[in-house]
Give the backbone structure.
Amino acid sequence: METRQLRPVGVVVSEWHSTDTMTIAGKPAAIRIFPDFSPAMHRIEEHNYFWVLCWFHQADRSILRSRPAQVNSQLPEYGVFGLRTAARPNPIALSLVKLEKIVDDTIYVSGMDAINGTAVLDIKPYFESDIVFSPKTPYIRPKEYMMRVNLFRKQALFHHGENCCGLELGVQMALVADEHFGQIQCPDVELTVYGDPCVADVLQGLTRARLANPARFTYLKNAGPTRVIWKKADKTLIITVRDDIGTAIANETDPQQWFKIEIM
Ligand SMILES: [Zn+2]
């Protein structure tokens, strides 16, 4: 078989040394670019998100079908071209990272899911045109609650851009809806949001519900409490933020206590 030669352009420097403790949401890390390639960094700070391609040297290259075991081992098997698993014929990893800062030849990023010492093959900017707002995907639902929380928080932050109170309320509401309805990106999930525009924006990002074509999302700015009405087939779920939300956030360890939840 014909072979190709790759030259790593840099290396991941991270506190995380084991793939066992790496999360799919990634970790803060640095990418040290090798001196030969430092001219390739010219003006990269004009972007703030990057695709980083790495070589996962510990991955099994013989596997062609697998389960997304880290996410949920009870899910069915997929061919590896339908998964992001590290195990694949050429273990090239694709990570979407946020640029935090650049110091000399080192790029500091967040959201990196590669361990310390991983070879970096390439770095490419993330462009607006990379967005497919409402793609069709199977629901690879994380089994662990905290993994779902972290995944929703990461998606919400990518979409909303600020870590505000509305972001956390939106994430927690989406987790409640996910419990009741399953995949909230489904074409048959509709929602109407009243109140906080940050909650509305976060939920639009998490559900990928558009205002039209098809119309799955409605937003109404009102003076009352923030409320979201979710509908799927003949099921309705109403989540209302408690009047004393400030006290609730301070005192309740269970975020579901922040809301009044009605199911019809
Ligand atoms: Zn906000």
Q: What stands out?
A: Residues 160, 162, 164, 166-167, 198 surround zinc ion (CB under 6 Å).
